[in-house]
Amino acid sequence: QQIPEQKLKAFSIGTMGKRQPSKRELEEQRKKEQEKAAAQAFEEFVATFQEPANKTSKVWVKAGTYDAGKRQEDTKEKGKLYKPQSRIELPSEKNSAEKAQEYARLLGERMKPERPGKKKEKEKKKSNLELFKEELKMIQEEREERHKYKGAIRSSSEIDPEILKSSSLSLSDEKGSFDSGDPNTTNIYLGNINPKITEQQLMEVFGKYGPLASIKIMWPRSDEEKSRGRNCGFVAFMNRKDGDRAMKALNGKEVLGYEMKLGWGKGVPIPPFPIYIPPTLLSLTQPPPPSGLPFNAQPHPKDRNKVPRMRPNEPYPVNPEDADKVDKILPQALVKVVMPTDRN
């Protein structure tokens, strides 16, 4: 089928819309323009070094030489041309051009953008896990070094707690380590204790002076520690006053044939309830026996035999006579409040 002549004219006369250049094309065009401008500047820069040097120098006509000492004039070279010789060596065109090219090359390498891959490698940061591993490794190395030096000092001779307290080799991360002097600490360091003594025996020895917050014996682990023939430990009281009394009474005292050496240690957290209470104080903290009165009120000693018997689920006596007796006993009764011991 033939195309009409009118349509062919429309195609030949009509204009097609121009496509807008993409961002990539604009970027490439901009780079080409920059490279062209840099090349032109480089050519101009090199041309300044390649210009031929003006080797012609000034020439004078000699008029004679006058000797001031002899008061005579020498006219032998009068009228001759005098051309002074420069002592400064001018650099050759080749050396100047080479220097210019070297300078331009170094400048181009410095201004040349890095590859995207290399930039990513440089900007790649360590993950949090890698940083945490490095931190743990550093802490472990420091701990091993402190253990090594402290073990060497302890194995050399028997050390007084006061010496260890002032030593910078004490383990700061070990529970109960020696402190520089906290006035509120309740933790006491026990040195030179019998290796056969138990924590229960230490509870009975120190528990006489007040409730205990914690107690710990540092049992030997290696053969070298076992060969010393003595142990150490820590006893923490619930309050400082009880610790002061125990320190004054037990420091230097022999327990199972070993003279204990005491000193204040680093403070430890105090639990809400003690792990050991002296029997004399334990009776005061225990709830009283059931009395049969409301709220387990304790009757006056003279009214103990007058309390009527009531049923377990009966809060108040139903019998009028028993109710009258309870009403007379309650004004003299005492309700004792104790802290529950079955809570953590």
UniProtKB/TrEMBL annotation:
GO terms for molecular function: RNA binding. It comes from the Eukaryota. Keywords: RNA-binding. Residues 22-36, 70-80, 90-116 have a biased composition (Basic and acidic residues). Residues 186-267 form the RRM domain. One of its GO terms (cellular component) is nucleus. Residues 1-36, 70-127, 287-325 are annotated as: Disordered. Pfam families: RRM_1. This is Putative u2 snrnp-associated surp motif-containing protein. The lineage of its organism: Eukaryota, Metazoa, Ecdysozoa, Arthropoda, Hexapoda.
